[in-house]
Design goal:
About 25% of the residues lie in helices and about 30% in strands. The longest helix has 9 residues. With about 80 residues, the chain is α+β, with helices and mostly antiparallel strands. It contains three helices and five strands, in the order E-H-E-H-H-E-E-E. The chain has one domain: Beta-grasp domain (Ubiquitin-like (UB roll)), CATH 3.10.20.30.
């Protein structure tokens, strides 16, 4: 299980400030996690994929989309709306 925290415009756009999910076996990095979350709907896709204003931390350390994710991680997504 990972804890995902949402900040910035993501809270209003996605309708939540936090979530906890079981990592599917194929989710091994941030990019795959974002893709999996984007399947929740069009707004999720818009805010998480291809958003140049999205910042990501794992366990309070800034990371990029190639960084690994593992069970027990706390992932924070900080994003602002894209026009």
């Amino acid at each position: 299980m990972v804890k995902i925290l949402f900040f910035g415009d993501l809270v209003d756009s996605l309708g939540m400030a936090a979530d906890e999910i079981e990592l599917p076996p194929d989710v091994t990095d941030v990019a795959r996690l974002l893709f999996t979350l984007s399947l929740r709907g069009e707004m999720w896709k818009k805010m998480l994929l291809g958003n140049p204003k999205l910042n990501i931390t794992i366990n309070k350390q800034f990371v990029d989309k190639t960084s690994p994710v593992k069970d027990g991680d706390e992932i924070a997504l900080v994003g602002f709306s894209v026009v």
